Amino acid sequence: MRRTFLYAWLVVLAATAAVRAQECDRSDDSQQMMNICAGEDYQAADARLNKAYQDLIGSDDADDKRLLQAAQRAWIAFRDVECAHTTAASQGGSIHALEVSQCLTRLTNERIKQLAASANCQKGDASCASPDDSDEVE
Questions:
Q1: 3-state per-residue secondary structure call for the chain
Q2: What b/e readout covers 1-40, taking b as 16+ CB neighbours within 10 angstroms?
Q3: Residue ranges per domain, the chain?
Q4: Closest by alpha carbon to 21, among 6, 32, 9, 8?
């Protein structure tokens, strides 16, 4: 499991290096360019996540801050392993970096929504635990 996670993370890092070397051109539909664009999308989502997290953690008291930090660390670990798991079938293929970046972006955007919903909650408001009740599974 750790080896798969490490490999997936190395692929993402390699894709990130490629992003820095070349900018996204969405009119180019080559696999390399799609990988680059997906990497940029993830980097943008990660920047928004970091901003949302910093905004939220700056407003918490010490106990809430400690719990939020632990929750964020656990969520990051979950996100990374979840993406390694869900993209394992493409490992070794040219589309793998794209799939990993898309997974990271999707889960990161979901987390941003969770943090935003949490920022709008009043302390003790149990009805505020879910960012969007319409997404509940019935």
A1: CHHHHHHHHHHHHHHHHHHHHCCCCCCCCCHHHHHHHHHHHHHHHHHHHHHHHHHHHCCCCHHHHHHHHHHHHHHHHHHHHHHHHHCHHHCCCCCHHHHHHHHHHHHHHHHHHHHHHHHCCCCCCHHHCCCCHHHCCC
A2: eeeebeebeebbeebbeebeeeebeeeeeeeebbbbbbbb
A3: 2-22+29-116
A4: 32
65-102 tens-digit pLDDT: 999 999 999 999 999 999 999 999 999 999 999 999 99
Q: pLDDT tens digits, residue range 95-111?
A: 999 999 999 999 999 99
CATH pick for 2-22+29-116 out of 1.20.1270.180, 3.30.70.60, 1.10.10.10, 3.40.1010.20: 1.20.1270.180
